[in-house]
Write a structure and sequence with these properties.
Length: 271
């Protein structure tokens, strides 16, 4: 009885060689023996011939095809292209390139391409929820607080509030009463721009009635994407110079910068 065949993972170059040999008249059985794979694998390669050739033709390096075994695309294809272009330029200039230098340049391209914003968008709400439960150990699934965001009932809200300090006595009746408030009632006094300014200046409504001249409002200032982007760049430079600034502060500004860059790209592409 023959032993179990060792699993062989072919490189992209191996698959291209098999495709060529099949086109030259080679048999699946013969190629399976040569490469130590099953005949089913050879048939799958023949079936996916166009996909393999297309992937190989899009590669910038034949040496990578001899090492790469999967056609799974990178999560950051734009970053890969930018890094490859930069790396080729450095090699052409004769500049030494080390691992730390590549890592620093990759970080630069990552933020320059707005990929930090995309990374945030990949974070699922359930991941954030679990993170908060680790930060606040009193809110745990075993306490019955693990609810789906699409299936939150009045009872579920009441249960959550009852685990919050100061709201232990909240009942479902209280929640229902709050929800029954007239939706057209904003719950606060609606003021005009002039009234907001007068109130901020400490003027009463009675004294404002005697004023003959209306306060001239300053027109809204329009800030374009370029100006907003420059503001975030300056703020990031400032934070980098401050030794006591923590990483989350810089990450918030970087996320804002990435969002502005994406808006700028969308505006430019629509023009």
């Amino acid at each position: 009885m023959s032993g179990k065949r060792k699993r062989v993972v072919l490189t992209i170059k191996d698959k291209l060689d098999i495709i060529k040999k099949l086109e030259d008249g080679g048999s699946s059985k013969q190629l399976a023996v040569i490469y130590g794979i099953g005949e089913t694998t050879v048939r799958d390669i023949r079936k996916n011939k166009e996909k393999i050739i297309t992937y190989a033709s899009s590669s910038d390096s034949t040496s990578l095809l001899a090492k790469r075994k999967s056609m799974k695309p990178s999560m950051y294809e734009e970053l890969d292209r930018a890094m490859l272009e930069w790396f080729n330029q450095q090699r052409a200039k004769g500049n030494p390139v080390s691992g730390p230098i590549c890592a620093k340049r990759a970080e630069f391209f990552f933020y320059a391409l707005g990929m930090d914003a995309m990374a945030w968008n990949l974070v699922k709400p359930v991941t954030i929820s679990r993170a908060w439960k680790k930060i606040l150990p009193t809110i745990e699934e075993k306490e019955g607080l693990d609810f789906d965001e699409e299936d939150i009932s009045v009872a579920a809200v009441a249960t959550i509030l009852q685990h919050t300090k100061g709201l232990e006595n909240v009942t479902t009746e209280n929640i229902e009463k709050w929800l029954e408030v007239d939706s057209t009632e904003p719950g606060y006094e609606v003021l005009s721009d002039s009234e907001i300014i007068r109130r901020a200046q400490g003027q009463t409504d009675e004294s404002s009635e005697n004023e003959e001249e209306e306060i001239e409002l300053i027109p809204e200032r329009h800030v374009n994407h370029a100006a907003a982007l420059q503001w975030t760049e300056n703020l990031l430079d400032y934070l980098e110079q401050q030794g006591d600034m923590i990483l989350p502060d810089r990450l918030v500004i970087r996320k804002l910068r990435a969002t502005i860059r994406n808006k700028q790209k969308m505006t430019n592409s629509s023009q």
